[in-house]
Amino acid sequence: xxxxxxxSNRVSAPTDPAGGSVGGxxxxxxxxxxxxxxxxxxxxxxxxxxxxxxLEIEERAGVTVALVDLEAxxxxxxxxxxxxxxxxxxxxxxxxxxxxxxxxxxGYERVNRRFAEILAPLIEPDDLIWVHDYHLIPLARDLRRxxxxxxxxxxxxxPWPVRQLLVTLPHHRRLVESMFAFDLLGFHTxxxxxxxxxxxxxxxxxxxxxxxxxEAFGQRVQGGVFPIGIDVEGFLQAxxxxxxxxxxxxxxxxxxxxxxxxxxDRLDYSKGLExxxxxxxxxxxxxxxxxxxVLLLQITPISRxxxxxxxDMRGRLDSLAGRINGAYAEMDWQPIRYLNRTYRRDQLAxxxxxxxxxLVTPLRDGMxxxxxxxxxxxxxxxxxxxxxxxFAGAAARMGEALIVNPFSRxxxxxxxxxxxxxxxxxxxxxxxxxxxxxxxxxxxxWRDDYVSALRGVEINREDGARVAGYQ
Length: 471
Ligand code: ADQ
Hints:
Elements lengths: L3 E7 L13 H12 L2 E11 L6 E6 L2 E9 H20 L10 H18 L8 E5 L6 H7 L6 E4 L7 H4 L5 H8 L4 E4 L2 H13 L4 E2 L4 E4 L2 E7 L6 H9 L1 H14 L3 E6 L8 H14 L7 E6 L8 H21 L7 E4 L5 H10 L2 E4 L8 H8 L8 E5 L12 E3 L4 H12 L3 H17 L2 H14 L6 H6 L3
Helix pairs in contact: 1-16, 2-3, 3-4, 8-12, 9-12, 10-11, 10-14, 13-15
């Protein structure tokens, strides 16, 4: 069997498999690499004064990882700059937050080139290479320039943006052209793939072929839909573990017979946290009789705090939570518990299970794994209710959740009320359908489908021609 080389910006193979780590990508990929022999390549997370290109190879919980340090300018321009200051907001339709700095684009190209130069000598002829996410879009082009002929696939964990917004990016054509150096482009949903195909047909003058293949820039690439999921068995075990059970018991006793509503999200504007708190406030206003019966636990670890937009948002959320608590709290009750910390996977599972409502209301999200974790953690005989944004990729298949428009605080308020008053038989019916989707999209299925599609993709181009196209 050929080896699998996974490439992603951060290599976050968990050192403790039970504990998990923040980021759906980390959980999904460590599960993949345990099955396929191979290696995980990416940035160590360390910053050095001058880039050396030295590679550190180590074993982490059964996974071989190959790490490279970046220099401060790379981190500013490539990571905080182009990846998280330009592409992330743009792909989440926040052109108002998108930085269009030329130096960021240059840093992005430079780091991708550096990654390609360090990775190329590690690649053996039969290896499959699987590149992840928006940080590394030009990587296949740069590997081809170095003569790498292997099958290279790309998977985008975020949404793909509408063409009308993507064209606000200087050099958008160059970015998309570089994607045609991959053999397979994977997206979470049909909607994201169709948006990509729309760009190819309308902006790049390309041709849409059968079975989601596409031709443009003198190259051909295969597209595909691969909805990511969670490690269902692992999550069920975490839920049933001593710490999972203990956390559940602690939550039940600490909520003192109140209905718990839970939100678990990285601190990110795409997650709709401010809108969520405002929707919850609306619910408190609309339903005075239910006020002291509920409690919102919002668990939000800080992320990307070096990027100003994130730092500013953190301040706004702190004051919003404080204001709502100040306005509605009573001497023995506080409507919101807002925490900026991470929990182990088993603890999270216990928290989800204790929650009558899971509030997953991003404004735009590639998939959203929290929605699936919440469903998976429920008691089948007395399950909670998932409230899910229609703008999460997860909504494409999880229609039995209460689907909401997260921009409307009235809709959020109504959905919270409906969830809290939903009869048991309806809760069981909806949960059963949702749990089936969670099982059908298990991370191992996602991984196997992607890898076998990459292995089977038809390569009908001469590698020489493919490389020449980019020189
Ligand atoms: P994220 O934007 O990080 O992922 P998501 O899919 O919800 O979003 O995954 C978050 C993960 O982090 C979940 O596994 C969750 O349990 C974990 N997490 C969040 N808060 C935590 C906390 N306080 N403590 C511990 N763990 C916490 C990106 C895309 C998504 C896509 C995934 C996977 O933005 O749309 O679903 O990649 O492709």
